[in-house]
Amino acid sequence: MESSNTIQSVARTPGKRPVAGIVIGIIVFALVAGYLFGGRGGSDTGKNSSPASAPGQFTKVPAAAPSSGARDASRVTADDPAWGPPGASVTVVEFSDFECPYCREAYPTVRALMRQYGDRVLFQYRDFPISDIHPDAQKAAEAAACAHAQGKFWDYHDLLFQNQEDLSREALTRYALTVNADIAAFNRCLDGGLKAQEVSDDLQDGIAADIAGTPTFFINGVKYEGVLAEEEFTEIIEALL
Question: Which residue stretches belong to region Disordered (predicted)?
Fold first, then answer.
């Protein structure tokens, strides 16, 4: 009883806190801070990849030479969706995953830059679905490719990121309806796996280029891993124009 009364007295004394309470408070603060800030910035990686970048950082690394038979991942391809003038002096090739939270974080910045530099810079989207941690990413990438076949890619791309919490098969068709795609053709494309190889080719090109996670950007051949802030992106692009 005496120890209980002593504890109560300390708790009521202004300006003082029990040591145990302070320790618990520090632990709770650390856990909350880790939850709030641990998921910001960086990149998503697969189980065999290197760790994600530290929060709020990106990594600039030399682009690896493509392995035999692989396309150069930093180069613009003919079959992947692009925005901007062909032959632009500055190219931004993004490898992304529709289920990746870091890619969703990066997407508004990339779209803003496309609007700002769309007449001078060519942006291209390529697929890098990390299926071991994102089970819906592969099919979402195929669905976007099916939308691309109908000239609906960018609107569909935006819907996938805006509704990332639901990439179910039913939702993929619903988003296609929203962008006014030909649903019969879209479903034949998606259910028939007509774009599966195209997505796989992108993935293999990325692996050959030592891509460790998403998003990864190649800006005029230089690889940047992780989420870039708009001002960082702008500084890089302006230096190249």
Answer: 44-82
Q: Model-level pTM?
A: 0.76
Residue by residue, DSSP assigns 96-110 as E-TT-HHHHHHHHHH
Per-run averaged pLDDT (10 residues), the chain, 241 residues: 26 37 42 38 52 45 49 87 95 98 97 96 98 97 98 98 98 98 98 98 96 96 95 96 96
- Residue at 109 is within a domain: yes
User: What is d(CA 45, CA 206) in angstroms, rounded to the nearest whole number?
Assistant: 13
Whether the CB-CB separation of 75 and 93 falls below 8 Å is answered with yes
Residue 80 in any domain: the answer is no
**Residues with Cβ within 8 Å of residue 193, at least 6 apart in sequence:** 142
Question: Are 129 and 138 within 8 A, CB to CB?
Answer: yes
